Amino acid sequence: MKKEEKREIILVTSNENKFKEMNSIAQNFNVSLIWFNIPKVEIQADSLEEIVKFSAIIAYNQINRPLIVEDSGLFIEALNGFPGPYSNYVRRKIGMEGIIRLLEGEKNRKAYFSTVLAYVDSTQLKLFEGRVYGSISTEIRGTKGFGYDPIFIPDGVNLTFGEMSTEEKNKYSHRAIAFRKFLEYLATYTV
Ligand SMILES: O=c1[nH]c(=O)c2ncn([C@@H]3O[C@H](COP(=O)(O)OP(=O)(O)OP(=O)(O)O)[C@@H](O)[C@H]3O)c2[nH]1
Ligand SMILES: [Mg+2]
C-alpha cells in the first residue's frame, strides 16, 4: 500500500517551545509541522479568540498557505481571570514571583490555562480551544517548559508543568488539547 503523503501545516510563532510541544504530537498524526518564526501581529483585546483571529488573518495574507497560530493565557480564579489575554505582558512585567505575591494569603489558588488555536486556509478560519484546570503553586518548582509552567499544577498530579517533560505536559496541557482537536478535524477535511 502506498504510504500517504504527510500533510504540511505551518505554525506561526516566535516561541520555540510551542513548536516543540506541538511537533511531538503532530508526528503521531502524519502531519508535518513547519515552524515559521516570523513576527506575529498581536492586537490587545479582552479575549484570546479576538486576538488570535487577527493574528491568523494577517499571517495568512503574508504567507498564503494553510497555517495555524495560537494564543494562550493563564486565568486565575481569585483574580477574576487575570492575567488571561494579558499573560505575556504580565509575565514580562512581574514574572512568576509577581503572581505568587498577588496570591499571598489567598486560599483559592484555582486557575486554568487556555489555548485558542486558529486554522486558516483559502476557504475558512476555524478556532479550536483547549483548557486545563489546576492550581497555582506556592513556590516556583521545576526548570522545564516556559512561561508560567513552574507555578502551574494541573489537576490530578502533584507536579508543576515545569517539572514535566514535553511528553508529560502534552498529556494534560491546554495546547495539546486544542492541537489534537485541530488534528482530528484536519484528518477529516480536504481543502
Ligand atoms: O506556563 C505556561 N505554559 C504554557 O503552555 C504557556 N503558553 C503560553 N504561556 C505564556 O502565556 C503568555 C502567552 O503568550 P502568547 O500565547 O502570545 O505566546 P508567545 O508570545 O510566547 O508566542 P507567540 O505569540 O509568538 O506564539 C506568555 O507569557 C507565555 O509565556 C504559557 N505559560
Ligand atoms: Mg505572543
From TrEMBL:
Active site positions: D71
Nucleotide-binding in keyword set: yes
GO terms under biological process: nucleotide metabolic process; purine nucleoside triphosphate catabolic process
Descriptive protein name: dITP/XTP pyrophosphatase
Catalytic activity: dITP + H2O = dIMP + diphosphate + H(+); XTP + H2O = XMP + diphosphate + H(+); ITP + H2O = IMP + diphosphate + H(+)
UniProt cross-references to PANTHER family, sorted A to Z: INOSINE TRIPHOSPHATE PYROPHOSPHATASE, INOSINE TRIPHOSPHATE PYROPHOSPHATASE/HAM1 PROTEIN
Pfam families named in the record: Ham1p_like
Residues reported in the UniProt entry to bind Mg(2+): E42, D71
Recorded GO MF terms: dITP diphosphatase activity; ITP diphosphatase activity; metal ion binding; nucleotide binding; ribonucleoside triphosphate phosphatase activity; XTP diphosphatase activity
Names of the cofactor(s): Mg(2+)
Family in the record: Belongs to the HAM1 NTPase family.
Binding site for substrate: T13, S14, N15, E16, N17, K18, S72, F146, G147, Y148, D149, K169, H174, R175
Subunit structure: Homodimer.
EC number from the UniProt entry: 3.6.1.66
Swiss-Prot/TrEMBL keywords: Hydrolase, Magnesium, Metal-binding, Nucleotide metabolism, Nucleotide-binding
Top enzyme class: hydrolase
Entry keyword tRNA-binding: no
Species, as recorded: Sulfolobus acidocaldarius (strain ATCC 33909 / DSM 639 / JCM 8929 / NBRC 15157 / NCIMB 11770)
Gene Ontology cellular component terms for the protein in this record: cytoplasm
InterPro entries assigned to the protein according to its UniProt record, in alphabetical order: dITP/XTP_pyrophosphatase (IPR020922), ITPase-like_fam (IPR029001), RdgB/HAM1 (IPR002637)
Function description: Pyrophosphatase that catalyzes the hydrolysis of nucleoside triphosphates to their monophosphate derivatives, with a high preference for the non-canonical purine nucleotides XTP (xanthosine triphosphate), dITP (deoxyinosine triphosphate) and ITP. Seems to function as a house-cleaning enzyme that removes non-canonical purine nucleotides from the nucleotide pool, thus preventing their incorporation into DNA/RNA and avoiding chromosomal lesions.
Details of cofactor binding: Binds 1 Mg(2+) ion per subunit.
